[in-house]
UniProtKB/TrEMBL annotation:
Residues 238-267 are annotated as: Disordered. GO terms for molecular function: zinc ion binding. Residues 1-35 form the HIT-type domain. Required for box C/D snoRNAs accumulation involved in snoRNA processing, snoRNA transport to the nucleolus and ribosome biogenesis. This is Box C/D snoRNA protein 1.
Length: 267
């Protein structure tokens, strides 16, 4: 068993291929690795290892995708006038805050995931937010994050050595063990070509709303938390010596791609 290292393994996780001896160890490994236990149907398989079983799996996966897309296209709610008005209102409110919020067509994963709302009584956004910790290969999704909350407060439950959850703290120990001054928060600049991916550095001491002003957001913000002392491949605009930071706005609107680009090596 790769969790307790005491008992003989009886089970193997279809997702991460970890061996476990009992239901308790299965639950522990899922919690520690944020593993859902579901086999990754899109995992890479080399030609030498490709079998008829993989071919059948791919065929069934494509059938499932076709059925899901057809069901989404037929769903009355996604095409209802109320849904369209809600999205229009959300984009309009964001525009009033100097944020260019773009929504994806029906069927896209980010469209289905997005839970961002705007409270008219409070005149405040409650954002759907994703935090990515590249050095630990960890991702966390937050819902209902108020726009007046500072980024430092948002990160406290994850990287603060005192306030963070013990399980999360153990997984992100490389962050909790580092000084707060080493933490950098980056956000990808959208609508750039895939061979020219750049990031904006955000201010941890300012609110989420202040950091999003002047930015292009596709569905919801995704924040990358990196450490200055560790090498990463994310090129921050204005710090690579080729493009000044103040050109980010004009360049962000010069491309139409909305797909996640590959991270370019800064070296």
């Amino acid at each position: 068993c790769e969790t307790c290292s005491k008992e003989e393994a009886k089970y193997r996780c279809p997702r991460c291929m970890k061996y476990s001896c009992s239901l308790l160890c299965v639950k522990k490994h899922k919690l520690a690795l944020s593993c859902n236990g579901v086999r990754d149907k899109t995992a890479f398989v080399s030609v030498n290892e490709f079998t008829d079983l993989n071919l059948l799996s791919d065929y069934r996966f494509l059938e499932d995708v076709g059925r899901t897309a057809d069901a989404a296209a037929r769903h009355c709610i996604v095409h209802s006038p109320a849904t369209k008005r809600l999205l229009y209102c959300l984009r309009n409110k964001a525009r009033g805050c100097n944020i260019e919020l773009k929504t994806l067509p029906v069927g896209f994963t980010k469209r289905r995931e997005n839970s961002t709302t705007f409270n008219s009584m409070e005149n405040k956004f409650y954002w759907h937010l994703k935090l990515v910790f590249p050095h630990c290969h960890a991702e966390y999704t937050l819902k209902g994050v108020p726009d007046d909350k500072t980024l430092a407060d948002i990160l406290k439950p994850y990287i603060d050595p005192v306030e963070s959850d013990p399980v999360v703290c153990q997984r992100l120990k490389i962050y909790t063990a580092s000084p707060q001054s080493d933490v950098r928060i980056l956000m990808k600049i959208e609508n750039r070509s895939r061979n020219s991916v750049r990031y904006n550095e955000l201010d941890a001491g300012r609110s989420l709303l202040d950091n999003l002003k002047g930015k292009v957001i596709i569905e919801y913000p995704t924040l990358f938390v990196v450490l200055k002392t560790l090498k990463n491949d994310m090129v921050v605009l204005g710090q690579d010596g080729s493009e000044p930071a103040e050109n980010s706005e004009s360049e962000s609107s010069s491309h139409s791609s909305v797909e996640e680009g590959e991270i370019r090596d800064s070296s």
